[in-house]
Amino acid sequence: MSGQSSLALKEEGNRHFQKGDYVAAEALYTKAILADPTNPLLYTNRAMARLKMSRWDSVIEDCEECLRLSSSTSTSTPGGSSKNFKALYYLSQAHLPLKNYDQAVAYALEAHKICADTHDKSLAAVTSQVLKCKKERWEHREKLRKREEQELEGEVVEMLRREMDGLLKTSSSGEDEDEEERKETEKMYEEKIERIRAVFERARDKENQRRPNPPDWAIDDISFQVMVDPVMTKTGKSYERASIEEHLRRSETDPLTRTPLTIKDLLPNIDLKHACEEFLNENGWAVDW
Amino acid sequence: MPVQFAAKRLGKELNKIQNGLPPGIELVSADNLEEWLLDIRVLDNNPLYLNDTYRLKFRFGQSYPIEPPEVVFVKQADRPIPIHPHIYSNGIICLDLLGQQGWSPVQSVESVCMSLQSMLTGNTKNERPPGDEEFVRANKQRPKDIEFYYHDNTV
């Protein structure tokens, strides 16, 4: 049976992957796929090896194929959705180095939602991926914005210069009175240009000032990170879902009061979630405060 | 648990600590993120601890802060082991906060240091735990693996 040998090839691929031999693992997963091209799980395995090899485009192809196959076959197979989260998680990881920031964020959030719903143990890793994508997207946007502002500054100065040159040309007869006027005009424009430069400089200084710590309300007291998916305990205190679930798996107690607490008791804190999102959109640096 | 968890949180704690610590607590070194040294002093005039500084060694596992750190006093020429009915003469501390049951992930290096400060401040007994000599001679276990019997949780 081809299915049988495909499974054996995958197992062998896994062994090579664990040893860190990603090239051999990738080749074995490819053989496994040739033997059974309709098994979506084989594609995420290969994507995982290709991630390690920094082959971003082929990671994306594999993950998309996996998602296509798993949506066309029955979607309710056990483990099906948790594998899908892997395809989405890898998609996010591949789109990020390709600078497709919006896609990287969107896939990370989709993966996060599935992990949160299934209480998957990878939730902490996926939460970190959401933060990483948001930070890199913010940095990219900041870079663009700074470049645009610098260009704008240059343009404004250039326009003032041209305006000044125009005025000077029309009064270029060379008499003493005109000479006086010319000097006056020149002085006025130089001052204007100076002021424009100072305004832009001040804006830049403000940005470069040392950033304060992010506000306490946005920070999870367990991971010390900005919260992505805050959930509330019975006392009204909120934590990052991944952190508090990790704690509750070890000890079913409220971290502050030590009274009994289970994962089922946790409630999403939607308003805080939106506040954290908004904060992070403006302050991407806070991911690495 | 992703490997990154402990490193990230410790990096941020260090960040915070470098902006200042409460009085009587000082960071000695955290060059290695898994092992930190801090000095603590008792701030009131408790004669048992007057003029002495004590050195604490924190060791963090990969699952910190879900799992507690291992915290012991270490002895040096100018850093004695404080006398206390819950502190063995080899530096091992019997405090429920540091045990598997009493630990909470919202605790931090700073909060542990403050708890130890107040544990010393409140003490009036100039004695070691019962069976100290025997314990220090026989114990080969790591502090976190010891099942302490918390006979008195008020200290």
UniProtKB/TrEMBL annotation, chain A:
Gene3D superfamilies: Tetratricopeptide repeat domain, Zinc/RING finger domain, C3HC4 (zinc finger)
Keyword Cell wall biogenesis/degradation set for record: no
Catalysed reaction, written as an equation: S-ubiquitinyl-[E2 ubiquitin-conjugating enzyme]-L-cysteine + [acceptor protein]-L-lysine = [E2 ubiquitin-conjugating enzyme]-L-cysteine + N(6)-ubiquitinyl-[acceptor protein]-L-lysine
This enzyme's EC code(s): 2.3.2.27, 5.2.1.8
Domain U-box residue range list: 213-286
Pfam families: U-box (PF04564)
Record key words, sorted: Isomerase, Repeat, Rotamase, TPR repeat, Transferase, Ubl conjugation pathway
Stored CDD domains: RING-Ubox_CHIP
TPR repeat spans: 6-39
Residue span of region Disordered: 167-187
Keyword Transferase applies: yes
SMART domains the UniProt entry points to: TPR (SM00028), Ubox (SM00504)
GO MF terms held by the record: peptidyl-prolyl cis-trans isomerase activity; protein-folding chaperone binding; ubiquitin protein ligase activity
Coiled-coil boundaries: none
Any GO BP annotation: protein quality control for misfolded or incompletely synthesized proteins
Assigned GO CC terms: cytoplasm
Full protein name: E3 ubiquitin-protein ligase CHIP
Annotated organism of origin: Neurospora hispaniola
Upper lineage: Eukaryota, Fungi, Dikarya, Ascomycota, Pezizomycotina
UniProtKB/TrEMBL annotation, chain B:
Highest taxon of source: Eukaryota
Family annotation (CDD domains): UBCc_UBE2W (cd23808)
A Pfam family it matches: UQ_con
Keyword Ligase: no
Keywords, sorted A to Z: Ubl conjugation pathway
Domain UBC core span(s) in chain numbering: 5-155
Organism: Neurospora hispaniola
SUPFAM superfamilies in alphabetical order: UBC-like
Name of protein: UBC-like protein
Lineage: Eukaryota, Fungi, Dikarya, Ascomycota, Pezizomycotina
UniProt xrefs under PANTHER family: UBIQUITIN-CONJUGATING ENZYME E2
Presence of the UniProt keyword Methyltransferase in the record: no
